[in-house]
Specification:
about 220 residues; alpha/beta; TIM Barrel; eight-stranded parallel β-sheet; about 50% helix; globular
């Protein structure tokens, strides 16, 4: 099995991709532990601050020491330099807010999953032509589940995941899965600033477990 298929399977199997960023290294690692305890085996860390790369490097070290089966992805990749830095740091997959051709070329040549954010059929066609197989619908709250329903038959070979605007409720999650997505990305609705600030890792773990259970029940129905 290829690395791209391994990551794709992991994200689809859990049906959820949690994403977060925190400048504090300890908080970053403690959130990762909570997500792992909840049953998460693929997570996206957001490259948005000056400490992102050093924190991500520590996440890889912790994963290697204590978290068998965990796949670590990096998000908000906007240029080739970032992609190269995180590839060296050991990222398992890469996510962008938009499609970046040189990033796609670099990562696909390394047999690494690249999931760009797309919000138009033209962008999706461009990404698919470049070899992308897993598309992030972004921003999900602007597009809505109806967009996914409208385009899914046009792109039968692609997997889709909305990020932005997906709530932790069954109604919200179910609307997206019924529309045809393979997983949902969830950031502040799951790992909120408030929970991070109060270091309430137990709630992060429990709410993640609840979302995983909701997704499991939706898939089974």
């Amino acid at each position: 099995m290829t690395k791209i298929q391994l990551v794709t399977n992991a994200i689809i199997n859990q049906g959820l991709l949690p994403l977060y960023y925190n400048a504090d290294e300890t908080v970053t690692l403690d959130i990762l532990k909570a997500l792992y305890k909840a049953g998460i085996r693929a997570v996206e860390y957001t490259s948005r601050g000056e400490f992102a790369l050093s924190n991500f490097t520590k996440m890889v070290e912790l994963r290697n020491a204590e978290m068998p089966g965990m796949l670590l992805g990096i998000g908000t990749i906007k240029n080739l330099k970032q992609a190269e830095e995180y590839e060296k740091a050991g990222a398992d997959f890469f996510i962008s807010p938009g499609f970046v051709p040189e990033v796609a070329e670099f990562l696909i040549s390394k047999h690494l999953l690249y999931s760009p954010g797309c919000m138009t059929p033209t962008e999706i066609i461009t990404a698919e032509a470049a070899g992308v197989t897993f598309v992030k619908l972004f921003p999900g709250n602007a597009l809505g589940a109806g967009f996914m329903s409208a385009i899914k038959d046009v792109f039968p070979n692609l997997k889709f995941m909305p990020t932005g605007g997906v709530d932790t409720t069954k109604e919200s999650i179910e609307s997206w899965f019924n529309a045809g997505v393979s997983a949902v990305g969830m950031g502040s609705k799951l790992v909120s600033k408030e929970l991070m600030a109060s270091k309430d890792y137990a709630t992060i773990e429990n709410e993640t477990k609840e979302v995983l259970e909701i997704i499991k029940s939706i898939k089974a129905s």
